[in-house]
Amino acid sequence: MPIPASSTHTLSTTVSTAAHAPALRDLPAVLDPGAVAPGTARDISPVFFERLRTLQEGSRAYSYVRGTLIEMNMSLVRVCARRFSARGPQEMDDIVQAGMVGLVKAIDRFDLSRENEFTTFAIPYIVGEIKRHFRDTSWSVHVPRRLQELRIQLAKARDHLTAALDTPPTVAELAAYLNLSEDEVTDGLIAANGYNTDSLDLGGDSDDDAGPSHADTTGSCDPALELFEDLHTLGPLLRQLDVREQRILRMRFGQDMSQADIGRELGVTQMQISRLLARILGKLRTGMLTDQ
Fold it and tell me: What is the pTM assigned to this prediction?
């Protein structure tokens, strides 16, 4: 296959040892796939993908083509990782490693027949794996770095003392082993709870998947509390009504009488009762809103 002149600094016209195989003979020979420029990788990757789908998975030729694709496209991982450079240089190695997982997944799932560029297809996989890394390894709540480091020390100390004592260590034993105060150990143990959180949809302590979830056993606001507050506010307002108004409310809502029946009881028309109820309820509504 002819190699573009712009690619001569990264590609060799000398066929590598692996490319002597008949299945690879007409592929561009890449002596150092990791040094291939991004533009060159974009140009020749389709040729390698086309050949990859014709090879038997697990064969030496398949491994060579797949490995070359991975190394040639590592620049995509570096580009995506730079988006998260604010996390600090100490995390960059982990970020790149997570991005490599996404790159490998993209290579294994890419379908050349869809006529999409591999770059467009791969970047969401790479970024997705990096974000998954942060989701799985980051603290659920912010705690000082001192306590983050203390969590690691406590975990190691707990494992060591549990093996030595044949029982989980107490706070005092952990403090003595780490030469810390018990208050410091307690702070570290409390902070460790912020490292991982569980979904409310997960089951409780039972191993039975059909058991109640955390949400099923977690307390919630009692709607009766809101009703109690409303009644507590309404009580004084009802006492401010005159005797007739209180009687109308009692018959309408306490005895569930219709407006027509109330009118007959009081010797007035249904229309008058309707207007009286509207006025009484309006007075109560205004009083409750003013009280709030």
Answer: 0.44
Residue 40's SS3 state is helix
Helix axes 38-52, 118-137, angle to 10 degrees: 100
- The pLDDT tens digits of the residues spanning 255-289 come to 888 999 999 999 999 999 899 999 988 888 887 77
Indicate the fold that domain 5-137 takes in CATH: Rna Polymerase Sigma Factor; Chain: A (1.10.1740)
CATH of domain 145-199: 1.10.10.10
Q: Which of the 8 DSSP states describes residue 213?
A: B
> What is the rounded end-to-end Cα distance, in angstroms, of the chain?
81
DSSP string, 18-31: GGGSGGGTTSPB-S
**Domain 233-291 is found in CATH 3.40.50.620:** no
Closest by alpha carbon to 151, among 140, 143, 163, 160? Answer: 143
Residues shown for the chain:
292
